[in-house]
Design brief:
single chain, 115 residues, alpha+beta, four-stranded antiparallel sheet, 2 helices, 4 strands, 23% helix
C-alpha cells in the first residue's frame, strides 16, 4: 500500500513569517510519535509566492485522519497548551491568512544510490 502525502499550503504575509516558523519550531515533536507518521517538512518560499508548504507523509489516510481528529485537533483548540501565550487566556492570532490542503498518493519514489 503506497504512502499518502498531505501538503498544507499556508499563505503567510511577510510580517508573519517569523511568527509561523517560531510556532512550528516550538511544537517540534508534536507529530513524530503519531502512529503511521513517516515524514515532515516546513518549506519556506524563496521567490514567486508567499505560501509556505507543510509537507507530511503518512502510512495511510486512516493514520492521517486519526492524527487530525486526535493530537492535531487538541493542539489547535488549545488543548496542547505548553507555555501558552497569556497563560491560557486569548488564543494567538493565526500567522497564516489562508490554508489549503492537497492530498497525494506516492506512486514512485527514489533515494540516493549507495556508493
Amino acid at each position: 500500500m503506497p504512502s499518502i502525502v498531505k501538503i498544507n499550503a499556508l499563505t503567510v504575509p511577510a510580517e508573519q513569517r517569523e511568527v509561523l516558523e517560531r510556532r512550528f519550531a516550538s511544537r517540534a515533536g508534536a507529530v513524530e510519535s503519531s502512529d503511521g507518521f513517516e515524514w515532515f517538512e516546513l518549506l519556506r518560499p524563496v521567490e514567486g509566492t508567499d505560501q509556505y508548504l507543510v509537507y507530511t507523509r503518512w502510512r495511510s489516510e486512516e493514520d492521517f485522519q486519526a492524527w487530525m481528529e486526535g493530537p492535531m485537533k487538541a493542539a489547535h483548540q488549545g488543548g496542547g497548551g505548553e507555555g501558552g501565550e497569556g497563560g491560557g487566556a486569548e488564543r494567538p492570532k493565526p500567522a497564516a491568512s489562508a490554508s489549503t490542503v492537497w492530498s497525494f498518493e506516492v506512486v514512485q519514489q527514489a533515494a540516493p544510490k549507495k556508493a
